[in-house]
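Every protein is a chain of amino acids, and every chain bends into a shape of its own. The protein below has been through that process, and both of its lines are reproduced in full.
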Amino acid sequence: MNNSKLDDLMDQAKLDLIVLISAENIFYLTHSPTILRLKDFQQTRPNSSRLIFAIKEKNKTKPILIVPEFDYKINKKYSNNTKTLCYKQYFTNPIVFLSKILKSIILEKKRIGIEFSSFPTNYYLLLKEILPLYKFLDIHNLMEDVRSIKTVDEIKKIKKTVNLMDKAIFKSFSQTKVHDSEFKIHINIIKNLYELGCFPDKSSKTHVGKIMKEVHKEPRTNKYINYGDLIRTDFSASFKGYVGNISRMAVVGKPTKIQVDTYNKLCFIHKKTIDFVKPGKKASEIWEYSHDIMKSEGVFHPIPKGTMIGHSIGLNVHEEPMILKNNLKIVKEKMVLVIEPVICNDFYQIQDHILVGKERSKKFSSKFNTNQLFVI
C-alpha cells in the first residue's frame, strides 16, 4: 500500500479518516485473506449480516479492520499490520458496530470519507441517522488515484500473475490437437490456471473461427477446430489478489499468407502503441494514436469508436485510466497498463501488460512469444 500517497490525498481533501467497504480497496489497505473470496457473498448484499470494513485515520499507518466473528481468527493472523476488531454476526448490526467504532475514534463534526458507489443506500442512511453531526464525503476518485500508481511489491505481483497466465495458455495450446472442441481448449486453460494457483474470471473466453468477433460469447462444445482455424483467448485471472488480463492467438496448421500478414500488422500496431505510452500522455491521445497507426497500415478496429485500446489493472481487471476516445485522464509513471488493440472483423488481438517508465514503457510478459502466431 502507498500509505504516504494516501495520507497526502486525505490531507488535500481535508479528511480525518476514511471508511472502506469495497472488497478491492479493503484488500489494498489490509490484505484481508477473506475479503476477495467472500465479496460477492457478503459485501454486495443490501442486508448482509457479515460485512467487512476497513478504517484508515490520516497519518496513521495501522488501519482498523472490522470483520464478523466467523472471520476474526484468520484475519487477525494474516492481515497486514492491522488492528482487527470483530462483531457477532447475525446478532449485531454491522453498521451500528461501525458507528460505535467511529464515535470512539474521532469527535463529532469531523470529515469522514466513504465510497458512495459501493455503500448501499440503506447502510448510508443508517450511518447518517446514528452519526448526524459527522460530514460524509465520497472517496471513490481518491482511492482510484492512490491505487493507480503501483508500488514495487504490486508490480512484482502483477508480473507474477501475467507470467503464470502465459505459462498456462502456452501449455494449453501445446496440448491442443486438431478436432478438439472450442470448449475443451477453454476448459484446459482454466485447469492449467488452477494448477498454477490462479483463479480465472468468469468473463474469460476462448474463441475459434468466425465467432472470434463476438466478444465474450460462451465457448461452444460442438465447435471442433480444423486446419486453418484461428484461436483467440481473452483471459482474466488473479494470483494472490492481483489480476492479469491477456489475449493470445494461435492457428491450426500452417498459417495462410493473409493470416501471417494481418498478425504481423497487429504486432506492429501493438508495439508502436506501447512505444507511444509515456507519463503525461492523455488516455485519449493513446487511443487516437493507435487508431491512426491502424489507418496507416490499412486495417481497422472492428468497433471503431465504442471500445478501448487498453486500461489500467491491479486488484480489478479494468481500472482507470481506461484508454478510451474521450478519456482525458493522464498516464503517470509506475502505472501498469494493459494495451490491447484489435484489428479486422476476425478480431486479431494481442493483450499485454506494460509498466509505464519515466522514458519508456516496458512489456511484462516473457513466457509466451507473441511476435508470431502460435502454430498448433
Summary: The radius of gyration is 23 Å.
